[in-house]
Amino acid sequence: MGVEEKLPSGILLTTVEKVAGYARKSSVWPATFGLACCAIELMQTGGPRHDLARFGMERASNTPRQADLMIVAGRVSQKMAPVLRQIYDQMADPKWVISMGVCASSGGMFNNYAIVQGVDHVVPVDIYLPGCPPRPEMLLDAIVKLHDKIQNMKLGANRAREVTELEQARLRRLPLTASLAVGQSHNPAGGPTMLGTPGFASPALDSPTVSAEGLGSRAAAEPEGAIRRDARPDQAGAAGE
Amino acid sequence: MTTQAGGTGGPAAEGTEGTEGRVYNVAGGDWDEVVQALQDGADPEDTEHLVVNMGPQHPSTHGVLRLVLTLNGETVTELRPVIGYLHTGIEKSMEFRTWTQGVTFCTRADYLSPIFNETVYCLAVEKLLGVEAEIPERASILRVMMMELNRIASHMTAIGTFGLELGATTVFLYAVRERERILDLFELITGLRMNHAYVRPGGVSQDLPRGALDAIREFLGRMPHQLAELRSLMDANPLYLGRTKNVAYLDLAGCMALGVTGPLLRGTGLPWDLRKSQPYCGYETYDFEVPTQGTCDAYGRYLVRMAECDESLKIIEQASDRLAGPRPEHDPVMISDPKIGWPAKLALGGDGLGNSPDHIAHIMGQSMEALIHHFKLVTEGFRVPVGQVYTAVESPRGELGCHAVSDGGTRPYRAHFRDPSFTNLQAVAAMAEGGMIADVIPAVASIDPVMGGVDR
Amino acid sequence: MSENPPPNGAEPDEAALAGQERLNEQVVRTGMFGTQTTGDTSGYGGLQVRRPPPPFTPRPYGSYFDEIADALSTRLEAEGSGFDEAVERVIVDRGELTLHVRREHLVTVARQLRDEPSLAFELCGGVSGVHYLADVGRELHAVYHLVSITHNRRLRLEVSVPDADPHVPSLVSVYPTCNWHERETWDFFGIVFDGHPGLTRIEMPDDWKGHPQRKDYPLGGIPVEYRGATVPPPDERRSYS
């Protein structure tokens, strides 16, 4: 926050990025948005065996105003979605989102009227973590990957350049099937709009929050257990989701 | 009171007229001004009543529960719980899956006691099928053992989150440590730590693996000491007693009127437990007590839960003795009727749990009939005769019932779960109104609602 | 359509009469499997299965059910209405007693069941709604499960109301626990409980349109894209049975 406004440039900027990244990743305060079964595994991750405290994350900030990371743990119902967005808005920058579990990542096994089919319809997600529910070790892996991402986050002018590059990559990305490409609404964030769901303008365009594209190490963007897809000529995008 | 996003937005004393009165936007650091404004506010009648929202995202509301409190100073004059923030449409989703696939859905309703959800649903399906007498005995023993393990795990979470919500994080750490051991047992036996899909119509999905009985013995040896440790921390703790004694009072008449069952009912002194009164899965053959307390307060319910953990350990020991005992020649864990029982014997392979190679060899090489049964059961599922049943089990929170309606097909026509948390949560208003706002937390926590079960 | 069982010693061709009446019932299934989406290859495609007559169980019911029926009968007669007037049908199936109660008498029956010492059904398990779309004239059923702790018994009350007039008197005055259950049944089925202190939506958002668990309400899923193929939502897939 204060750092972002008074940034040097060049090699000094790189040093500041490293230090700021290290400081940020070492003390991420989660705003646990524990909803359902994944919340229980999240609680177990905070327990003595898989200890979140060794990452500096045991202080779950109950107020979103002091939180850095929102772990959406569990299924988000239609009634809960506005609340989710409000909590996300109340978080101060820089903030990250892990969608924990398949229900948060994509709606999971509940493909019906009641569940939002993926919280990325509501908030921009940095790490998708599949599992029903994911083991604490899987959650820790996602958190470590997020730390990697945070460590390598760029600041200032570098950041602006990076955001532009990511945007361009997204706009160039093609959908998987031609049928979905036909008749899709113009989504400025790129990529296919899921049928039958409201098109949210991607907030990632405006905020400096990292979007789901690969940043730093490519591995940071791939969710745990993602099967590596061979690059095919018709898929210009990353294996981010 | 709504919080304004960012900035101090001007003096808070200027309220705006909302639908139900003045609305003040609190931006932080100006609480004194707000209170002052209320005291010399426009409406002298309304100066002392404050409507506060304990929103769905809150550390102490035990899940996504929203409580709208009307406060008169520190006293709660009105409490309105708002639920539905976790509504998943489980019951409707089950109508589009086969009877066996329904298990994977219902197991996620009350996610702290998944085995109970599965068991009540499977008991309902078996009752509809009319095969209750043909469920193998070993399957029933396994169901009982898993249910009691789940009961302890659920109570540990209940006690742990109770402590966490009161601000006592040590309790939480002790409780999740114990729960972690039970989850290890679950993982060993069913393959998953939570939401197991272990109990299936006709029996259970697989038998105990090697080493499971030893692990259970070890757990039984260690657990009483851990429970005693937890009790020594809390039973006579003056802070804990101060927060829970004579707090959240609900007597027998209140429980009956509000349909409350489970530890709340047993906390009033009535020893009503479905495992004793209307036994299922062979519970009548186990030796255990039904603990009660007579104090009707949150502390009494805590004591009931701890005592139930001890009783559950007794049952687990008896069940594991039976499982370890001499086994007859043919001791399946799934009903032998080929038109109903899940066909595959599961085995651990290189890539995880799946159909055992023996079974594959059998259906592909030896028996066409077995292949057809396997195919039909997995794709279409078995058909259940027309009718409706209601079965109930004693879940850690109370009477969990399943009302299953069949139209003769392969899918549930309607599967409704009478969830104890849903019914018990109605009682929170009766318990907390008239008390202080700090007593709302133990009230909700002593009901131990699991919002997945409340909202389904 | 005969609602009441025919008296003993009726016409000799009562079976033929029943069959004739059955032909006036509506068709609930065509073809062998009743499937609408894929072809019926059974050869019985022209089969028309009509709605069967509503089942009932004649006396004696067995077990403790007769005691309940007798005690209730006595109380209802003392009240003014009779057993046959209040209770449409009695079904004993799979060890459970179901009383199909006419909606006008629901509150009276429930009150007698609760207050009469030989009945003493103190605990109500709440309302469960069922929507029988094919059952024209009695589509919506409200099912109440009662438990007697004193006598260790169970009982089910069922009320059928048509879609055109989905009103059922509320049982909140007799069993306050039905409060939220009736709100839930209203929310999901549209059954209006007259006399309920505050019949509003409880699970769905307050401004939701429609009653989701009715059979004519879609499941509401979205098609799922996976490796280039699209899987339709569960309620739009082909059915084979």
Question: Largest beta sheet of chain A: what is the strand line-up?
Answer: 1-2-3-4
Tally of helical segments of chain A: 8
Strand portion of chain B, in percent? 5-15%
- Quickly count the helices of chain B: 18
**Total beta strand runs of chain B:** 14
- Mean pLDDT score of chain A: 75
**Biggest interface:** B-C, 45 and 42 residues
Written overview of the protein:
The complex is a heterotrimer of chains A (241), B (456) and C (241). A four-stranded parallel β-sheet of chain A has the order 1-2-3-4. Chain A has helices spanning 2-5, 11-26, 37-45, 81-90, 102-106, 136-151, 156-172, 178-181, and strands at residues 30-34, 69-73, 96-100, 127-129. In chain A, helix 2 runs antiparallel to helix 6 and helix 3 (37-45) crosses helix 6. Chain A is of the alpha/beta class. In chain B, the strands form six sheets. Chain B has a three-stranded antiparallel β-sheet with strand order 5-6-7. A three-stranded antiparallel β-sheet of chain B has the order 12-13-14. Chain B has a two-stranded parallel ribbon with strand order 1-4. In chain B, strand 10 (346-349) and strand 11 form a beta hairpin. Chain C has helices at 14-22, 65-79, 83-86, 106-115, 178-189, and strands at 27-30, 48-50, 87-93, 96-101, 123-131, 140-148, 153-161, 167-169, 192-194, 224-226, 229-231. In chain C, 31% of the residues are buried. The mean pLDDT of chain C is 86.
Topology, please?
The complex is a heterotrimer of chains A (241), B (456) and C (241).
Chain A: H1 2-5, H2 11-26, E1 30-34, H3 37-45, E2 69-73, H4 81-90, E3 96-100, H5 102-106, E4 127-129, H6 136-151, H7 156-172, H8 178-181
Parallel strand pairs in A: 1-2, 2-3, 3-4
Helix pairs in contact in A: 2-6, 3-6
Chain B: E1 2-3, E2 16-18, E3 21-23, E4 25-26, H1 31-39, E5 49-54, E6 66-72, E7 75-82, H2 90-94, H3 101-106, H4 114-129, H5 137-166, H6 169-190, E8 199-200, E9 203-204, H7 212-234, H8 238-244, H9 252-258, H10 263-266, H11 274-277, H12 298-324, E10 346-349, E11 352-355, H13 357-366, H14 368-379, E12 387-395, E13 398-406, E14 414-418, H15 420-425, H16 427-432, H17 437-447, H18 451-455
Parallel strand pairs in B: 1-4
Antiparallel strand pairs in B: 2-3, 5-6, 6-7, 8-9, 10-11, 12-13, 13-14
Helix pairs in contact in B: 4-5, 5-6, 5-12, 5-17, 6-7, 7-12, 12-17, 13-14
Chain C: H1 14-22, E1 27-30, E2 48-50, H2 65-79, H3 83-86, E3 87-93, E4 96-101, H4 106-115, E5 123-131, E6 140-148, E7 153-161, E8 167-169, H5 178-189, E9 192-194, E10 224-226, E11 229-231
Parallel strand pairs in C: 4-7, 8-9
Antiparallel strand pairs in C: 1-2, 3-4, 5-6, 6-7, 10-11
